[in-house]
Amino acid sequence: MAQMDTWELDFFSRPLLDEEGKRIWELLVCARQTGACYQVVCSAKEANSGWLTAQLQTLIAQAPQAPALVYFFRPIMTGMIERSCKQLDLEPRLSLRSFRVRRWLQERERTIYPQMAGYQAPQTSPSALETINPQPLPDMLRGDQWALVSLSAHDLAASPPVQFGDQIALDLTPRTRVPGLVIFSTRALAMSAWLQGVDPVALRYQPDPAHLILEVGNGEQWILARLRQAGLQQEAQGFAQSLQGSDGVHFLAIQISPQSEVPTGFWTLWAAP
User: Fold this and answer.
1) From the CB of residue 256, how many other CB atoms can be counted at a distance below 10 Å?
2) What does the alpha-carbon distance between residue 85 and residue 46 come to, in Å, rounded to a whole number?
3) SS3 45
4) Contact at 8 Å (CB) between 97 and 217?
5) pLDDT digits (tens, 9 = 90+) for 174-213
6) What is d(CA 10, CA 103) in angstroms, rounded to the nearest whole number?
7) What is the distance between the alpha carbons of residues 162 and 139, in angstroms, rounded to a whole number?
8) What pTM did the predictor assign?
9) Within 10 A of 41 (CB to CB), how many other CB atoms are there?
10) Rounded Cα distance, 192 and 184, in Å
11) CB 177 within 8 A of CB 241
């Protein structure tokens, strides 16, 4: 059986106007396994599921590996993308774990669109996403203890596959220090299986009140730890600062104990700068 890829896509209007004053649309596609990226421009009058289906069909025919799963992150585009995926026997998944295409879009917003004819600076970033206010931690994610650690990007990329998780290569130099969080729990296997279903996205430090927050694929945010001690707050602040050196890339690992050699769950995460 041929190996199948996972694709991430964004199909939406850009801060660009055509000669008729209409918004220009753009399809961006990133393939996780092969690293291939595709970009196709679309006029506002053509922006529908039929056009999207035809373009995806063409890209699939050209791709070295066909996709089975397609990630996207804009709820407003769910209907159109689901219709196209159904036509092509693809599984769509709405999730903020669309890291590759979100990073590419952020780069284009910063360096490409402002240089193009018809550019109109948006009041907010077109890739900005709404998230839900932090909620109490679900019982399934309550560990026995946790630790903030770091790995080199080389070691992160060389991490062996684990039973649960999602490791995505995000183009860092090998010596880059990548921060992360390890949660230790005797229920590590069940915890990892549960996390697999909610798509961990990012960890962040909230200073007031001092909390460590976990964001998941549907935009929900959970209070992972309440940092009442000054030492823990300083440690979390250091974690937040280190994200600047890793371009927002970090990780989450679940282990039975500090003595365990292999985690039961391991996810690459990304916090948009």
Assistant:
1) 17
2) 18
3) helix
4) yes
5) 999 999 999 999 999 999 999 999 999 999 999 989 999 9
6) 11
7) 23
8) 0.90
9) 12
10) 11
11) no
